Amino acid sequence: MNADDIHLTLQELRREAEKVVVGLETPFELLVVAILSGGHVLLEGVPGTAKTLLAKTLAQLIRARFTRIQFTPDLMPSDILGTSVFDLASSTFHLRRGPIFTQVLLADEINRAPAKTQSALLEVMEERQVTLDGQPHPMEEPFIVLATQNPIEYEGTYPLPEAQLDRFLFKVLIPYIPLNQEVEVLERFHRGFDPRDLAASGLRPVLTAEAVRAARTAVQAIVMEAGIIDYIARLADASRRSPDLTLGASPRASTHVLLSAKAYAALRGRDFVTPDDVKSVVPPVFRHRLILKPEAELEGLDSDAVIQRLLSEVEVPR
Known about the structure:
The chain has 14 helices and eleven strands. By secondary structure, it is α/β, with parallel strands linked by helices. The strands form four sheets. A five-stranded parallel beta sheet has the order 2-5-8-1-9. A two-stranded antiparallel ribbon has the order 3-4. Strands 6-7 form a two-stranded antiparallel ribbon. The chain is globular and about 70 Å long.
């Protein structure tokens, strides 16, 4: 598989996704970038903006097992990871695996669970394994965590710690769709569209696990010149020195920009990365990692505004 094959695959994925998802082309493409980069995604949007539908669609398109966990204040780590159960017949313990053992995990309203439960995802997101009773249990690839949170309602929520936020490749904002596209959604439901039965909409898989692995290998081979690597490093360094920020982008953020820029280039059929590829992925990679100073917030700035300022200030390589 090469960059041209990946570009054609993206077009096919888009055609299939449009059968069930309307008006979310950019978020969907970023999910594809995340799959090819081996990263996880934090989806932020108000209720009813098709975040769950987007996750289920992605799982079907890559023939992956899908599991949804509703995070609540009383959710325990063992409810996610699993636990050892004593078998009276054999007088032995055996592992009862939790819902984490899947391929596409939707952690719905992740910020409604306390920090102890949120931290249960830290190892699996970084190491792709779960350690139970001292034994590591690797996840089946491709494995991706899609976590959702509501940007409006904060009552009864627990903000995600920085260590966990830093493990997400992207923070993708799910907007309201335009009026004409909402009319199309209503017409589809009028004709009998059922979001719980995607097969009835004619949605068919496009990729297999083997194809995803082949695509990831092709992405690794994408050329990135030294000037582009230096550009990524200077963007991260500029964020750490920004007068608007208390906390800038981490070294992990820099690696996430590098990996996702290569995937972004491949999806466009190119075997090399350009500065525009970097500029396209920096906002979703940086926005959940930056902490603004109070005075910057009083000026009306948000993370995206600061990111655009960084992109305009750091010299682009020729």
